[in-house]
Amino acid sequence: MLKTEQQSLATDASALKGIKGVKRLVLATGYSIKGFQAAWQHEAAIRQETLCALVLIPLALYLGQDSIERILLIASVLLLILVELLNSAIEAVVDRIGTELHELSGRAKDMGSAAVLMALMIALMTWGLIIL
Predict the structure, then answer these.
(1) 10 Å Cβ neighbour count for 63?
(2) Of the four listed, 54, 59, 87, 106, which is most buried by Cβ atoms within 10 Å?
(3) 107 is annotated as contributing to ligand binding
(4) What single DSSP character describes residue 21?
(5) Which carries the bigger pLDDT value, residue 12 or residue 83?
(6) d(CA 49, CA 126)
(7) Is 31 left (phi over 0), alpha (psi -120 to 50) or beta?
(8) 47 marked ligand binding residue
(9) For the domain bounded by 44-132, which CATH number is listed?
(10) Residues near 39 by Cβ (< 8 Å), separated by ≥ 6?
(11) Burial of 64 (0-12, 13-18, 19+ CB in 10 A)
(12) What is its main location (predicted)?
């Protein structure tokens, strides 16, 4: 990352601290969109899971017998994307620190991956129990 980009990010972060109300919400939403765009660009798993969500969410609305089932089906898919985003963030931070092998770096990445696996199991179990 270039020094000017680092200064810009630091300025953006410190500027957000003093802002309140709707303006802060708008800026935070912009940062969230920027984060999702970065994940889409750099993480194949996010692209795959988002494309699956675009199919599964309408399917959940159709297959769910009532509001609770629809919410559970949709939430399990969104949970998987949420956990994948957090895992990608962990990986990015670990990689920023250094790419050399280190026990703690490996442990952090492995735990993030395990969290994704758990979210996937929750989604599969939810869909399996409701649909079957």
Answers:
(1) 14
(2) 87
(3) no
(4) T
(5) 83
(6) 16
(7) alpha
(8) yes
(9) 1.10.287.3610
(10) 46, 84, 85, 88
(11) middle
(12) membrane
